[in-house]
Here is the input.
Amino acid sequence: MNHHARPARFTALLLCALLAVACAAAEPSLTDRGLDLAGSGVHWPQLDGLPDEAWQAEVNAKLTEAAKAAEWTGLLATVMSSDQRLTADWQGAVSGGVLSCALRREKTAGSARVLSEWSTLNLDLERREAFTLWELFTDPSRGRAAVETLLREQAAPHVSAQPERGALLPLPETFALSEAGVTLYYPITQFQTLADRCGTVTLSWRELSSAGVLDLSEGSLAARFGVPELLRPDADRLRRSAEEGCLPALPVRLGEDMEALAGRYGVAADPDLFSGGRYVQLEDGLFRGVWLMTAREGGKQLAGCRLEGIRADRFTACGLTAGETDRAAWLALLGQPDASMALSPEEREGLRLDAARCDSYLCGDTILLLYADEDDILVSVVLRARN
Here is the structure.
């Protein structure tokens, strides 16, 4: 007998066992499936990595059905020779056994959008059943009241909508969870944006937590989805995002094509000039209180322009909250800035920002700028590329 083979065999068995444990412990993930044809594209998510293959197949059937994937892939061939274009895409996450997906479908004819709709799927993978928005709260009735108050007082003043089609109440049935918070997806007959899309509103986890209704207890849906971690101060996460050209929870990156972003999320109004270029506000609910910064040249046109900066006046991430966090708190979190300066009245006017001071933090190839008012309260967070 070859006794030297025993250690090698044992090592191989140990590696196989460790690999099996690692695979079993791995978090399931969502991957993209789809087809692009002649300027149209139909995409939908599928779940990978569930230990129970039968349950995974059932979940994927639900995702395929929610996306209307069979119907829309069948339509691709019918629009090839016309001026119609189909766009079906999705955004979603799975964490702690909680799956949440939003699936968008749009049809255009020439420059006109003739159909816009959303569907969502929210599943508790451990209980093997769908969950409702109200299961996120300690008390459903108080949760509903808090959501309605936030919509009236925080979201409604910033809605970009067609006349007579900007109502945020009653609440829609479709919603989804993300790193940013809870997004409500409205039928177009109730909330239609200026770009003729179904309207959306995102309520941040911080807003919901501050209302005192979010259930963050151990084992709750929000806790399993990772919301407590998202609410905690996290300087490393903020710096990491900045180094990657992003602000936490915003799905845009410095250097992206502005025309493509405008096509994806819609533009709420004509670009607004400031001393360093143009501010562009997008219609999607994720961008409430957020402006994208791009080159001054171009007027209303965005063709050929790149995303050069992100300004967030409604920033609630990593322990920083615009309108609440004071300078002492962010100094304790991030340390002393690489530069700090007082702003003159002319500089404030040029930036179109009511701020008295700016602290700058170098993050790789980007600069993170924190603006404070006269009382040293955070009023805006800006990320831009280093010159």
